[in-house]
Design brief:
Elements (H helix, E strand, L loop, with lengths): L1 H5 L6 H18 L7 H15 L3 H33 L2 H13 L4 H14 L2
C-alpha cells in the first residue's frame, strides 16, 4: 500500500493512504477469479478517479500498482490492508463505495464480495 500512496505525493498523506488502500481492495475484488479483465481494470480506474478525485493519469497509475501488488502479495496483504482501510474509513464512506458499485453495474459476484467485506468491516 505504501508504494501506491507514494505515487499520490500531491495529496495529504492520510488521503493518499486511504486512496491506496481503496485501490488495493478494488484490485482484490477484481482478482477474485485470479484474472484482471480489461473491463475490471477500466472500472477500477473509473472508480478510483471518481471517488479519489484524481486526474485520469494518476488513477491509471494507482490502479496498475494496486493490481501488481494484489498479484504479488495478495494472500499476505489482503487482511492487513482491509483492516487498515476499515480503521481509516467512516461507515458513510464505506456505504458510498458500495453504492458506487451499484451505480456502475458491477457484476453481482463482485458486488456480493464487496457487500460481505463491508458488512464484516462494520462489526
Amino acid at each position: 500500500m505504501s508504494r501506491i500512496a507514494a505515487k499520490l505525493d500531491t495529496l495529504p498523506k492520510n488521503r493518499a493512504n486511504h486512496v491506496a488502500a481503496f485501490a488495493y481492495i478494488l484490485g482484490r475484488v477484481a482478482h477474485a477469479d485470479s484474472v484482471f479483465s480489461e473491463a475490471e481494470t477500466s472500472k477500477m480506474q473509473e472508480i478510483v478517479q471518481d471517488l479519489g478525485h484524481l486526474p485520469e493519469a494518476q488513477a491509471v497509475l494507482v490502479v496498475e500498482i494496486a493490481k501488481n501488488q494484489v498479484q504479488l502479495f495478495g494472500g499476505t496483504e489482503n487482511f492487513l490492508i482491509t483492516r487498515r482501510f476499515k480503521d481509516m474509513t467512516s461507515q458513510n464512506l464505506l456505504k458510498a463505495a458500495l453504492d458506487s458499485y451499484e451505480e456502475r453495474e458491477i457484476s453481482w459476484s463482485s458486488k456480493s464480495v464487496i457487500s460481505s467485506g463491508i458488512e464484516s468491516l462494520s462489526t
